[in-house]
């Protein structure tokens, strides 16, 4: 348990002294969000560690697994996971090498490839899912707090142009 003063509180104090209290609140918001994201991501990574899979790999596997056909084009995966094409190509390559996905010709467009989950990928995602679900259920936030956090995040994502104003909530 940290015994030192909260560095965020000190940064807030310093920002207020040198710039403004409103700006200090913004600083605290951005820094808090970054720290929370890191902590939550690390918790998810820890939950998946026994399965030798990263959170990013699990996201891709489940996205493809839960698609109607068990496969998606790279551009759809890139858009839905908000991954740059180069990162997605690298991730798919690693999963393909591990036998968890395969790139197959798109039956609707022979020029395109689909990333499809393999039986091994389905088995891994199905085994790892409950461990990740247990982590999600262990978050020390009430359902109401989680809803509030999701609404605030949605508002910021809309402001940044990532979502349409009328996008449905999580």
Automatic annotation (TrEMBL):
Report a single Gene Ontology molecular function: DNA-binding transcription factor activity
Q: Check the record and name the Pfam families matching this protein.
A: MarR
Gene Ontology BP term (one): response to stress
Q: Which SMART domains match?
A: HTH_MARR
Residue span(s) of domain HTH marR-type: 26-158
Lineage, top-rank taxon, reads Bacteria
Designated name of the protein = MarR family transcriptional regulator
């Amino acid at each position: 348990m940290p015994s030192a003063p909260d560095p965020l509180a000190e940064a807030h104090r310093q920002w207020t002294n040198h710039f403004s209290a409103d700006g200090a609140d913004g600083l605290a918001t951005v820094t808090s969000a970054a720290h929370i994201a890191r902590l939550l991501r690390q918790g998810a990574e820890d939950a998946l560690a026994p399965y030798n899979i990263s959170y990013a790999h699990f996201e891709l596997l489940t996205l493809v697994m839960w698609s109607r056909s068990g496969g998606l084009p790279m551009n759809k995966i890139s858009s839905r996971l908000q991954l740059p094409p180069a990162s997605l190509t690298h991730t798919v390559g690693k999963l393909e090498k591990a036998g968890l996905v395969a790139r197959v010709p798109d039956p609707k467009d022979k020029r395109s490839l689909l990333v499809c989950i393999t039986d091994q990928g389905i088995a891994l995602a199905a085994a790892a899912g409950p461990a990740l679900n247990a982590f999600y259920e262990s978050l020390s936030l009430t359902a109401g707090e989680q809803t509030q956090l999701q609404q605030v995040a949605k508002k910021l994502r809309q402001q940044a142009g990532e979502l349409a104003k009328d996008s449905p909530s999580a």
